# Entry
Amino acid sequence: MSKEFPGSTQKELIDREHSLSSKYGRLFLGRKSLWFLVKYEFISHFITPVPGALGFWLRKVFYPRILKKIGTGVVFGRNITLRHPHKIAVGDHTFIDDNAVLDAKGTANSGIQIGQNVYIGRNTILSCKEGSIALGDYCNISANCQLLSETEIRLGKYCFLAGGCYLVAGGNHNFRDTSTPIMFQPSSTKGGIHIGEDVWLGAGVIVLDGVEVGRGSIVGASAVVAASLPEYSYAVGGRTLRIRDRRSLDEPDKV
# Structure
């Protein structure tokens, strides 16, 4: 299924039909409200960077004023980036480490839902481009992971992602028209990524759009998961490249 996704940051920034302030509102706020803008700017500049225990306490007090929902005992590290924060919900006793990105960007999406007792590591990015991301209770997302969603990424309870994992739901551009840059051609989607409960993805694992990983499965480090895995799978290995001329492809929309 092919579709235009308006959530691309680059496409938004080069759009000349809207002013700089309008682009800022669409990319970061998601709301046309002066009061919301004032709260967002104050928190971003004066609360988000504060170090130490004082910073933890200030974010506990002020973040509920812009986020959709925050449970009890939630800890936010320093320099967390929040986009469209009114579509971000965080469950009880969750810890989000320094420099994480929670980007719920989109015009009609449900945003980011984080369960209870979840850990999100330093520099990890959860980014929506009109899609949604849902993390079940007790998920552990290690440092430097990226979850990018144009449709849906859903992780069940007790999932563990080692460092550097990359999950991308959507983002697969068509390239049939060789006269148009690939980035401006419609994206195609295979329905998102669904990870069952109690799944362990090793360091550097890549999971592609349309994949379902069954409950209790383990995927070894650096593997590329391009097809669904049944329950309690143990998958290791990489992916072999086949090189062909793009202009001669019979099915040019598939990567």
Summary: Residues 153 and 250 are 30 Å apart (CA to CA). Residues 67-248 form a domain with the UDP N-Acetylglucosamine Acyltransferase; domain 1 fold (CATH 2.160.10.10). The helical segments are 9-13, 20-29, 34-46, 52-62. The chain has one domain: 67-248.
